[in-house]
Design a protein that fits this description.
CATH superfamily: NADH Oxidase
Helix content: 25-40%
Largest sheet: 4 strands, antiparallel
Number of domains: 1
Strand order of the largest sheet: 1-2-4-3
Shape: globular
Bound molecules: flavin mononucleotide
Order of helices and strands: HHEHEHEHHE
Radius of gyration: 16 Å
CATH topology: NADH Oxidase
Low-confidence stretches: none
CATH architecture: 3-Layer(aba) Sandwich
Number of helices: 6
Amino acid sequence: MKKEALEVLKNRRAIRKYKAEQITEEELQAVLEAGTYAPTGTGSQGVQIVVVQKPEDIAAVNKLNAAVLGNTGAKPYYGAPTVLLVFETDKCVTHELDGAAVCTNLLNAAYAAGLGSCWIHRCKQMFELPEGKELLSKWGLSENLVGVASVALGYADGPHPEAKPRKADYIVRV
Ligand SMILES: Cc1cc2nc3c(=O)[nH]c(=O)nc-3n(C[C@H](O)[C@H](O)[C@H](O)COP(=O)(O)O)c2cc1C
């Protein structure tokens, strides 16, 4: 049994407070590479991960996500210095699931690399908005990219959260 990997899968938690300090390039690359090795339907790799680190872009994605949330005062990425946006690029039948698989790899890899992370919702709606399409265009990306999920990434600022107890009927053996 590869205990270390199992410990990572079990102990990763959603982090909702981050230090302002940026993560290292080595840490970022380790997380991204793990993302690219996620399973995808028929091995299509029809997913693109966009790395956002420039302060003005971080502010823009926070603003966009907060707008979808309907609370312009919110900080949906919790001050994380890096945001990863996961898009589907192909119209293959498993597109959304592929993006979710990539996102899960990113989160687990982040924890394994000593980083904090949190899956952040509303990526699809963000990039359906004209402001979202403007951002894609500014980054030189296709405005047809479809958002699947996003990840707040950085050094956790605070104690590691405890997992809730698992529900009794999570697993059914037949
Ligand atoms: C599809 C999905 C969407 C999520 N969206 C958000 C979100 O927008 N904001 C947030 O703080 N956490 C979000 N989360 C994180 C969950 O709230 C978190 O995983 C859950 O509370 C369990 O905590 P854990 O990850 O520490 O085990 C999301 C998780 C998933 C899987």
